[in-house]
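ARCHIVE ENTRY
Sequence with per-residue tokens
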Amino acid sequence: MKCPKRLKQGDRVGVVAPAGPVDPENLEKGLRTLKRMEFLPVVAKHVLARDRHLAGTDEQRTQDLNDLFGDKNIKGIFCARGGYGSNRVLSGLDPSVIRRNPKVFVGSSDITLLLLFLVQECSLVAFHGPMVAGNFGRYPMPKSKRQFCEILLGKKAGKRLTAKGARVFNPGIAEGKMTGGCLTLLCRSLGTPWEIKTRNRILLIEDVNEPLYKIDGMLWHLKQAGKFKGIRGVVFGEMVNCQPSKKAGGSFKEILRDVFADSSFPILTNFPAGHGREMLTLPMGVEARLDTKSKSLEFENCGVL
């Protein structure tokens, strides 16, 4: 794995929209947040473009990503929001160009597929974290903003994450490289060249606005695809607004009991690394230690040089 250079205050950082269309008001609020962090945001050419349910055409969104990775003056790339569409730009990205220009890249939700691409195809540490319009433009996120800066600036305080509100499903300690993201996108990766690799890894799983029967189906999909074999541990996000449907009851805990009935690896749930009002930044591809007793996730390093 190759770590990008740590960011410094005053650095120029690109803002890109690889997936869904961006709300201009939320974008402006998020840009103000980046400026208060003392970064200099550079908005990519097509961020406010729109093509049906996408932030511009596939060609426009791909061009913005390629341009930002190739621009020597841009030290980091932050995604504006998720939505849908990252899968449509992956084939237009050149891993060799990205490897020659490693830089901080942050996103989540639909951006999960881009994170998997960067980590697995480009051997570049990438960051699962808040987005400019989708998170910073909507919520105060005081804890997340502080840790976001700490880890991207390479400060040791940013690599140890604790969550008092997390819940222990399976107790224990696990060590392995971090991977994962939004459950819907993890399933969408299956059968593609960038299918998620989980063996000997700690897996982050989170999602939003999905009825529990769909969560059940997606977890069983991963299980039947062999993605829980050889895994070291699982961290579930807050699974925001993932509720039973009107026609079916049950609980998330009952789903976990079924899916992980024969599993002994540690599982922590309700960790603030998903679609909640706080979203901690995780360096994907970096060795991590999961400890359910302390409800903590500690990384070997910040993922930056």
